[in-house]
Structures are given as C-alpha cells and as structure tokens.
Records
---
Amino acid sequence: MPQPAPFASTEESAWGGIEETTQDPEEARVIFGALDSFAQYAKVAHFNVTHLRRRSFYALPQSQWQLLAAAPFNYLSTLDKTDDAIDSNALLARAIVDAGLKSFGMDEIPTAWKGVAKHTEIDKARSTVRQFYRDWTRDGEIERMACFGPVLAAMEAEQKQSEEQLKVLVPGAGLGRLVFELCRHGYHAEGNEISYHQLLASQYILNECPRAGEHTIYPWVHTFSNHRSRSNHLRSYPVPDVHPATALSSQDPAAPQGTMAMCAADFLCGYSDEEHDGAYDVVASVFFLDTAPNLLRYLEVIRHCLRPGGILINVGPLLWHFENNAPGNHGTDDDGDGEHDWNNSSGIADPGSFELTEDEIMVLLDKTGFDVEWKTENVETPYIQDQESMLQTLYRSSAWVARKR
C-alpha cells in the first residue's frame, strides 16, 4: 500500500498516498470521479437548490408569487442569497480540486475525466463540504468533543503508563481533525481513509489551506426544511477555525512533539500485513466500527495492528452502513458458488456481512482476544447537526476501551 505521508508545514509539502494509484485504471476513475464531483458541486447545487425552486415559484398564480416576492418574504431575494452561499461553498470545493490536481502535477482535470462523476459521487462532494462544519469550524467543536473527549481522556490515561509517546492509528480518519488533535496533544498519529472525497478534502485542509478562516461555508443551504428563520438557514461559518501548520509550529517546544501522517488505503488490506504487526499502541475508532460489513475482520486487523497490551478506543453508534447492501454480489463471491479466495482479499469488498447489537459486540470482543476495561453508554453525539433546526437527530453512542490480551 502507499506509505503514510507525513504532515509538513512547508509550502512544498507533498501529501503522498494517492499519486501512486493513478496508474490503475479503476483507481484513476475513482480519483478523478471524486475530483470531478467537487468540480461539479456548484452547477448541480444551483440546479437542484435554486433553479428548480424558481421554476416552481413562477408556476404559482401571479398574485401569489408577487406576494411572496415582496417584503417581508422576499423569496426571490432568498434564492439569490442561496446562490451566493452555494458559490461560497464552491470556492472550498474548487480549492480541494486544485490541491488534488497539484499533487498529480496537473492544472486541470483531463478532458477524458470531465463530467464522469456519478450522482452518488456528487452527493458525497456535497456532504463533504457540509462535514467541514463538524470538523473544521469553531461551532463544530461541540460535536467534535463529544467524540474526541473520551478518546483524549483514554489516551492521557494510557500515556501515564508509558515512557514513550504513544503511536495511535485512526482508521476512517475522514477530514483529519482527530489525527490533528492527537498530534497537537503530543502523540504520533496516523490516519487511514479509503474515501477519496475525504482524502482530497483532508489533503487540502491539512497541507494546502493558507490560513485560518480562508473559506466561508453555508452547511444548511441545501435544504429549505425545518428552519426557524432565514438567518439560520443562511448562516455561515469560517473554515478552518485553526490553521494546522501554524498551530503546530507555535506549540511550546518543551512539550512532547507529536507527528501526523495520512494513508490512503482499504483498512483491511493496508494494515493486515507483517509491516503493521504490533505497530501501534492505540487504535482510535470514532464512528468507524459500524462501517464494517464484517466486524470480525475489522477486529482481527485491529488486534493485528496493536502491540501486546495495546488498546482499542471506540466511540460511536451502530448505524451499520452495509445493512441490506452486502458487498460481494449480494453476499456471495463473483461466480456465485459461495467460495471466496480469502488469500486474495478485496478488503471491505469481500463477500459476506452481518450486524450485531451492542451487547453482542461486547461478547465478540472477548472472543477475539480483547478485555473491555470500561464502557459508557448514552453518550450524546450529534453529527453535522444544525442546533437551531426544528428537526434534531442525535446518536446515543457508546464509548469503551478494550485491551488486547
């Protein structure tokens, strides 16, 4: 797999990890599909969010749309402001594209790859832009600390038992904020991510974004439902709330100095090799375990990565991502004979899946060589939640630490 690329604060920092994969046609399609989806963000958002609404608005009887177009409703003005908000979001999306192309030594998406993004990929681009609210705004700190707090507390307790700074792996690292925070706390942190939407976005924000507050995002602009006020609907947030390179370079030199790296790979394929056997003191899993079609494989690879006595810190719900959508030809291998060559693993795409309850996972941890040392239930963990919305969704997650026997 590509080697983890170290974080660097210089202008010429190279975020490796995806450059090597462009020689593979399918990998190239996925990467350029992700880039193209960010490039198409503005066009698709303008069409879906404002163009269709204008068309529906003018389909009203003239007396009605004239009423709504005038004060105090100013509906057409609202649509104009919505377009401006989408354009502001698009500046971030375009910056992600430019940073990704730069890592390939390109200025533009090759013509053959323009317009290739699927609807699902464009949806991911939109959700990634929204995710910056959670990971890289000041207001998102409430959500972050609900999840990061238990991780940092467990890390601190574990560090007291070690003379060396802990090495921690963060699978499903997303936009890289937890990796950054662990580094800022003096740990040697490595993030792993399979989604190129997340990888491209984290590459930009960690290595290329020039300053704090460089962008302004409008995370609630894509839907017109459940807003108490238009000011809330069109609320903006500066991104990022902190500039990673500046924050790390301004730390007390006498304090423990952490390191940070990111690796693009399927967790199951990339970390099951001999190189990663016992390589980490800690695996920090935040909203990650329920992305597994086969949790046994996740736990096996996590245990493989941990040194003897190492710990798995987990925070998150159980929203099983592959429920009713098992990988591998609906739960079988490609030729349908039920026999899969596990010596040639496709990682997360291997056939087979199952979903467990929380109490069953506790039993499974014991069966796979872990001892659960502590567990907290009903940890309130909102996820990209507009606190002013009339619709509030909330995970009551669990947080626990399990030690490798």
Note: Residues 86 and 140 are 20 Å apart (CA to CA).
---
Amino acid sequence: MATSADDDKASSVKEKEGSGSGQSESRESKSDWEDAVLQERRKSDSLDESSAPSADILFAAGIGLKEDDPTLPCLTIRIGVNTLYTFRFPSITLSQSAIQFLAYPLSKGWEMVVPDWGFNFRGTRHSLNPGPFNYKENIFIYILANLSFATRLSADALTEQRHFYGLKAGWGFELLITLCTLGFGMALAGIFRSLIADPAGFVWPGVLSNTAFNHALHSRKSDKESVTGQVMSKWSMSRYRFFMIAFCASFCWYWFPHLIFPALGYFTFICWIAPNNMVINQVFGMKSGMGLPPITFDGSQITYIGSPLVVPAWAILNILASLVFWIYIVPPSVPGQRHLRQHGQAYNVSRVIDKKLDFSFNHTKYEQYSPLYVPVTYTLNTFGLCFATLSSLFVWLYLEKCEPIMGVAKASSLGRLWWKSGNGEAAVTLRNPQSRYSAAPTWWYWVLAFVSLGMGIFCLRWHGAIFSLFISLVFFVPLAWVYATTNIKIKTEILCRITAGYVYEGKVLANIWFFGLGFISGIKGLAFAQDLKLGIYCNIPPRKLFLVQCVGMAVGGVTQVGVVNWALENIPNICTNKAANGFNCPFSRTHFNTSLIWGGVGLLYNGLLYFFLLGALLPVAVWGLKRFALPRSRWFTKVHVPLFLGDLNFIPPATGTNHGSWAIVGLIFGLYWQRYNFVLDSALDCSLAIAGVFIFFTLFYTGAVDKFSWWGTEVYKNTCD
C-alpha cells in the first residue's frame, strides 16, 4: 500500500530529523525503521479483499472527485433540527439513506428561508444559516440517523426481558444499559481506529453507496471520466438524474408486492399449484420450507439480510456456496424459530421459569413439563455453525492473513505501543488519512470506555459486566477486519450465550445481558467504526465527528427506550402470531429462544460444541489445499472459511429465499455493472423505506385497506407453507 503520499510523509519526517547536530545516529535508525514499516505496508497488498480499492471503485463511489474544502461549515444548527425527526417513532423505520435523502430538500429550504442570524464565539461565527447546504452537513445527518439504528439490538434485548420473561426493570435500568452498550462500542471503534479504519486497504464497502449518493446530491454534473482520466462510459447521465429515475420506478413498484399483489413477494408458485402437499411445501415453501427456487419480486425480501449491491462478488460466491451446502444439502428439513414440546405443541416458558427466584430456570418443573426442542435448521445455523465460525476466525486469520495484517498493525499508531525502533523511540505513523484536521485523542475514547463500564457495573454484577465486555474487546478487531472487507458481520452471540450459561447456570436474565454487553456492544462498535471510515472518505473533521457521535448516541438511546416502552404497551398482541401488520418481533423471539436454551436447558444441545473443532480444522484443510494441491487455482484462492460458516447465522429469522435472491442480485450487478451500482443501491434503499412508511401509515394503520382482497392477496396464504 505504499504510495507517493507515504514517500512524501517519510521524506518530510527525515527533513525534520536532519535539522540540528549530533542526531545522525538517530536519523539513520529512524530512517531504517520507516523503511521497514513501509515494507510492512507493501505486504498488505497481497490481500485480494484487503487491498486498496481501485480507481474505478472510488469513481463509482464518488470518492476523491471533489477537492476537500476545510472551511466548509459542517457542525451547524440545521443538521440537528433536520435530524430530530429521525429519532421519533415511527420514523425509525426509515433507512439511513432515506433520512439522508429527505434531509436534502429540508435543508435546502432552510438555506433559502431562514435568515443569517448568528454570533461569534472564539473567532468562529455560529449562524442559523451559515450558507449553502453542503455535503459534509449531509454526511453528519446520515451519521446521526445511523446511530438511531444502532440501538435496535438493545431494543430486542429489552423486549426479550419485558415481554417474554415479564420483568419490568424500569426506565433507569433500560436507559443505562442501552447507553452502556452504545458507549463501549463507540470506545472500541475509536481505540482501534488506526487498525480498522485508517488503513486504505480496509474499504468498508457498506459506506460506498452513501458516498456515491452524497456525491449525486451535491454534484449534479455527469462524470465522464474516472480519477485515472479514462473514459468510463459514453452514457453521460448524471448520478442525480439516474438516482431520481431509479427512485421513482422503485417507489411505484413497491406498491405491488406490499399492497396490490403481495404474492409477488412470496412467489412460491409451485406451492400454489399443490397447496395441501406437505412435501412440496417443505421443499418450495418460503416461510417454513427450503425456499426453492429463491425467487421474489419484493426488494425488502432481497435486502432482508443487507444490500447485495455493496458486497464483493467473491464474498457473495462464498455465501452462495454456504447456502447450497448447509441449507439445501446437509439438513433438508423445515426451517423455523419456534421452541416446541415433544409432540410439536408450543412451549410455555412460564411453566419452567421461577419468577420468585430471580427468574431462574427450574429443573424440576422442566422435567415434569417437557423437554425443549427446536428445528434442525435453527439448531445448525444458530448454534453449530456459529461455534464453528468463531474458532475458524482466528485460525483462518493466522494462516491466511497473518503477514499482511501484521504489516498493517506495525504501521498503525497502536504499533507504537508494541514495536520499538532501534534507538528505543516509538515508531512514527507514516500516514494520516486526515492530516488536515486535528485527530480525536485516543484518551477520549478510553474515558468513554471506563464510563460505559461503570454504567454496566452499576446495572449488573461487576464480574459479569467486566467479563462480557472483555469478550467484546477480544473479538472486535478480527470481526472488524472481516466486516471492513466483505460487509458481512460475523456473530459472536452464541459464545456469549454459552459462556453465560455455564457461569450463571439457570439464570436466564443473566444470559440476556451477558449477551447484551458481550455481543451488542461489539456490533454497535462496527457501526461506529463504519462512520469513522465514512468520515475519512468525506473529509469530516475527527473531533467534530466524535461530538456528533456522542450526541447521537445519547439522543438515540433515550428515544429507543421510549419507543420500546410505547410499542409494548400500545400495540395489541405485539410479539405474537396474532399481532397485526407483522409486529411479531422475529429477532426478539430468536434471541429469547437462545437465552432459554443456553440460560436454562443447555445440556440437551452440548453435542453441538464439537462444531468448535470443525471450525478450527476446516481453515487448516483449505489452507493446505491452496498451498499444495491447488496453488494456481484462481477461484479457490477466494475461499473465505469464516464467511462459508458464518453468514447463515441469520437463518432464522431470514430464510433460504432471502439469501438466495440476495446472492443472485448481488452477482448480477457486482460482476456486470458497476458505474451506477452504488447510486442504484441508495435509490432502492430510499424508495423502499419511504414507500413502506407511506403505505403503512396511510393505508394499513388507518384501516383503509382492511377489506381489500383478491386472488393475489390470498393465494400464498392458502398453502401449508
């Protein structure tokens, strides 16, 4: 990854060292160290998926097409005013891109209407209308919206505790525990920034559609040439015009699978032909079957596990292979997420939980009632493959990526803590991606980490809080390395669940919050780290970004707790199969099943622990084949063991149709069409979110379409699926 910028930086360091006398030995030693670190940086180029993005990718993402202007106002009053609605129910259902899109006309209107009233403070003018609305302000609005989404997992845990176990801990506990997970996640992202966000090789594909969309909004001209000067296409349509065409088309289409013809979303046409045939429905059904063939015309079904347009093609191929092997070949059984009794009846959890004894699992009641059973697919994906993924992650990183990752580590600012130069001085950082701006001091993040730890200790047992956050700390960097190159999140949920199950045997509530601190804080840390990378791409001052993240974290946490309490008290039959408009809490129910199994039952599924051994051995086998049997195979070098084992952890509540259609769409656009790919992703995301909210609150919520029914609204319901 050595670039001319690196060389310029290194030469400037040498010039500074050359001033003065008696420092020749120090200068030579430091120069040798810089050369060594530059060599380490070059080693990271051997990573296919971790190498710096090509010029064409940067062009498609709208990165580097505009010279940075440090004088642009970005931390303005209007970003806060225009973002307030993003934290209010029901707008939390809007996507981040939709918030970014809706903020643009509102802010332009502010620019034209609001007077330029302000004041000077320490030489800086603060105004209600500081000038034209710019792209940096729009990015800040996106980041604030992104933080409101980062609280969803905490909402799942709160719902699990309140609804499924019946414990109301109060607003104080709910707010502090939510801020604890958010704060520790933000601290992890900041502390390890130099390892996961600063290196150019870690692309963070998830932000590319946002940079492309931001460029489309604030640069209406067509881009006929890439940053290399090569003509990209004779098609001279601007990104903004393309976005508006795609947005309008997708907005109109959304009405068909979600209102006019819902069967298009559940396109199990073979089941329609034989609605009462159990075997047909188990193979071709979407909800309770294998989802063959994976066809759907509903964009929200395709993007249920994330956008396929920002994931590299090699990563999609790994996930597609995983789907075929683990879902279609190994366990051809009925998917599902409900826990059952011996003969298939629904399991009544209240029969085995003793609420008078701190919500403990009662073994006597369990033996008298019934053993707990879950579907094979649920057990395999949620437990077995998750175990295998965790053990494979470290073995795979050591065998495949050890040398280039060590190069990145030594060249980072954290490398100064471990590797010393020849004269005993700490190594210098050779490249700062935001050298124009003052960095946010690392000690700010350390303070945030200890404050978050304090909140966790205040809410929970001190040893449980420390232990769970330590697990989050250990796994954070490896998980970030995978996410930064593939846009796929590896789940450590089950490790937290099973650890809590053994340490706090029978304590289902302890299992919930050990998972909350150990897993949720790390997942939220990935969201904060992604925003740090977005800040680098869009030249956002790091200290202002830190402030915005803190404000968004506080406001988003408070609002999310309020939304959870409102929803649980006001939506009839919420989190049940009788809930109207789909409010059946699929993620909360999945987490509840897991907490019951590992917090209570546990021993019935201990045989799945052998998947840890499988996960440790599989990377060794793949590494051996790459090195000795198939050293010249281009495709086999793309095999990514943690992805092969880990992406299906989201089944359930996701289905084979969700993964299959996701992979097909991702391969089509990722392999054959790139220029407008990221803009298209934002257009689809915005249109689905805005159309969904509009249809729900104007038609479904008001009851205007309660009696709307025809063959296209009922055919997929009248099957065994």
Note: Confidence is low (pLDDT under 50) at residues 1-50, 73-93, 225-232, 421-430.
---
Amino acid sequence: MKLKVNTLFPPSLWTRQTILFAGSLFAKFLLFNLIWCMQTTFTSFSFVGLYLNMALAALIFLAPYAIGRQKGLQYGILFLLDAFLIANLMYSRTYYAAIPLDSYGIASNLSDFTASVYDSLRWIDLLFPLSSLACLYASRKNRQSAGFPSRKAYLATTGVVCGLTLGLNTLHGGFKNAYASLQNANYHTCGVPIYTLFGHLYYQALQEKDLFTPEIGQQIEQWKAQQPSYQPLPDSVPIRTNLVVILCESLESWVLERTVDGHEITPCLNALLKEPTTLYAPQVLTQVAGGRSIDGQLLLNAGMLPIQSGSYSMKYPQNTYFTLTKALKEERGARSYLLTVDKPIVWNQGVIAKAFGIDTVLSKSSWVLDEKVGSRKKLGDESFFRQTTEKLRKGEIWPEGEPAYIQCVTYSGHGPFILPDELKRITIAGDYPQRMKDYLVMANYTDHAIQQLINYLKTRSDYDQTLIVITGDHEGLASDRVPLTQSASGKGIVSDKPFTPFIVVNSPISMRYEKVMGQVDMYTTLLNLLRLDNYPWKGLGQSILDPTKPAFAISPQLQLEGSTEGIATDIIQHAEKAYTISDWMIRFDYLKPKKDLPK
C-alpha cells in the first residue's frame, strides 16, 4: 500500500510550489464543474471519471513547471485557463452548452453581441482569477523552495492517472462510445464536467471525422417511415399566395395578453389574437442550439432541428435545404426577400439565405441608421418597420399583386434588453426585478413597431391572399429565468418555461392551440395552411392541425415539455431521435438531389 501511495504522491514531486500549482489547477476544474452543475444537474459528480479526468487535466497543465521549470509560464497558464473556463460558462448561460470546437474560429462574430456577452458574466466567475492571484501571492510569500520537482516522478504520476482513465474508458467501449452513451435525456449535460472541456472538444473533433455509412442511411429511412403521415387540408380551405414572417428577437409568450403596473405590454399583438382569422399557439418550445437566431430560421423555414455542435450556417452553408421559400417559389411563383439590420456575414446569413432560396437580401447597408439601439448601435425595430413599410409602399420590394415571401428579422430584443430612454413608450414603476422591467419595456417597443407593418399590410389589395406569421426566434431570458420566476414580484408573471408565441394572422383556419408544440412544428403547420401539399419535404415536425399530434416537444437538451398522457414510449423516443436524424441529414447533406442513398 505504501508503495502505491508513493507512486502517486512521491515526495520528490510534491514540493510546496508543486502543491500550490496543482492545487490551484484542480480547484479551477472543480469550481467549473460546480458552477456548470448548478445550472444543469449534479449527476456527473456520481461518476468516478469526473475526478480522474480533473486530476489528469490538472497534471497535464502542470507540465510547464514540472517539466519546463518555467514558473512564469505556469502563472500565465493559470490565467489563460481562467479566461477559457469563464468564456465557456458565459456561453453556457445562453446556449446551454459549451463553446463548439468550430466556434473558436469565428470569435469575431461576438463584436456584434458585446452587451449580450458581458451580460452573461456572474460575480462567482471572479473566483477563477482570484484563485490564480491567491496562488501567486502564496508563492511569493513562501519563496523558500526545496527545488524543482522530479521530472520522472511527475511523468510516472501522470502516467498512472492517465492509465486509470484509459482503463475506465475501455470498460465502456472506448472514449467515443463512453461519451456518446451520455447523449440521452438524463445525462445530456454531464459530458463536459465528466470529461472536462478538453475531452468534450476532442469528442467533437472525432465526430467531425465521421463518414456517412449505409447504417446511418437505414436509420434515417427507418425514422422517416415511422414519422406520422402529412395530412392535407380539404380543398374548401382558401389558398394563400403570400407569406410574411416576422421573426422577433427573443420574444417570449408570457408578455402577451399581459398587463403589468397598469400597462398593457403588447396591445398590437393582443388585438391580433382577438381577430376571428387568427391562429395562436402560446406554448412553442424553443429548440434552437448553438446557432441561436439562425437556428430559428432553420426550424421555421426548413423544418429541421439544429445540429448537435456549432452552427449549420457556418459549417454547412452550401448544403441542400428544402424550405418554405422554395416551396412558394415552385408552386406559386413567389419572389422572396430577407430583411435584416445585421451585416450579411453575421451567422453567415447572406450565404445561407441563398441556400434557402431567398432572392433578395436587404441587410445593414439598405437602411438609414436614424434610430440606434443596443451597445452596437444597430437600427431599432421602430425605424426598421417604418423604413420597411416605406419600401413596400414604393414598390421597391414586393410589388402589389405579385406572390412573395417576406422575412423580417428584428434586432432590438437582444439581451440585455436596454432601450434608450427616448424610445421607451411605458415605464414600469413597480417593485419588479430590473431585468424583468427592461424585458417588458422592450417587448412593448417591438409590439408598437410591428403595428406599423401590420396596418400597412391590411391596406394592400392582396391582403386576403397573405398569411402573416409572428414568432420569436428563440426564448430570451436564458439563465435569468430562474431568479425572475423565484422573485416575489416576478413569480406568476414570468414563465418558467422557454416558450415563444406562434401567431398566424389572416389564417384560413383560426384556432387557439394551448398544447405544447416545438419550433420545428411551425414549418409543417405552415406548409399545411399554405396548402403546399405537393412539396416533397414535409419537415421533421408535425402540423398542429393534425388531431393526432402529441401534446409535447423535446428541447435540444432532450428535456420533455408538455403532456405525455396516453403516449407510447416509442413515440417519445422517436421525437428524441429527431435531433440525431436532423444532425445526420445536415452533416452528410442527405437531402442533396441524386445522392446514392441506402434503401
């Protein structure tokens, strides 16, 4: 026993300085895991691998001092590791995942979301650099040293710990299989803490090398065969030739039909909900992932779920996508327009718009910047819709009487939801959390901005042929949701679920759908409402007009929301597997024509 202990803890290795460095490194990984699990689940702490991998990571990062004898470099490693761990925690508070491997190469995109990035910082994050400073202070205070640690002892100890981790992975079929086994509803978020961020990135790198196989093709076809068949509407249902989509940044359902501190938050949208030709579903589960806003466009326009790592628009912009845009063009001869205040390079939306079949993109340079909102001073929603209406009136876009697909993407609702005082239309004076006040004021502002476009559309001669969709691209509160719902004034007002609204104005079928649905279901529902029944791609969702549709949806974290009463287990598993199916379809460009696919 003494020999085994001396192998792991040889006196020649564990000098006072070595203990300080190794202890600081291990503490950082432990702190990261604790904070990560506070946001998810502490289940990962029941895995032996978590402790072995933390120890191995600490030993590897100890190499500059243990082998190189570089104390200064070791201090630099501590602070760099702090930045890396904090960045991933910040990312996880919005995206519910670690930073994808490919996203490190597009960090410049963050310049357009600086305020949102800073807003993800928490006071507890300061413990990382403070631990490094504490290590530095302790080292300076105890300058008496017993010399550098033995390189042989360091390599032997690291080798033993590495052997233990490899042996544990071997018992589970190897690293890739061991990590993949965690990709289920119960352990989906455990991979990062158990295998550290570096193991997580390695797993993603291994996934990138995956090749399409006949087995993957068979699984895709089997899943499609089990998908409920598409149910066309009767011929008596009127046809719409135009589709206007308003994608509202971070709009959640709970602000609709809501009066707070004497103010009706969304009077325009509320009025639309009362119209006899409106379809409304308030419980649309957010299903975006690493692509966030651009994932929202994939879900609605292409009926596909986001890929499991990174953003499809950055990794697979040249792929084949079947979309509502293309369906309207093929069956109605519609011309399509994307209107955004962002640059075309943001989320690579200029390129992905072409892949989606959009004819014209009006981006940042197309607008007069006369109303600035957010830290990046982008065009506010009020001016955006005013200028959009002007272009429509002049016939610069969508000449009256011509079939069209119009997609308007708003910006102002980006976190942290700070609206300039001169643009505020209401003031929330009650004792509410400041973040809640800011969100309500912003929702009211965007609601009023939308009204300009709605009022204009109703004056057009082709309004009867126009379907108008208003929805949020994704939820908005992210990690702020729990504290807001637990606050005395926010409880009972702020929803504890990440639901966005799905509003269809001038719908040929009016209804209020109170069951839970997913964002991916919007595509199939719109295909239904537009009666684009001959379009070959029916999406990965199910129309809410289908009475057999289950009343639940699955999040990217594989969490189920809604009711499963009377629902067979295989139906739930089918919905969960849709994420894997969509990931394969996108990664391997499965929808590309004339591809030799397995039967």
Note: The chain is about 45% helix and 10% strand.
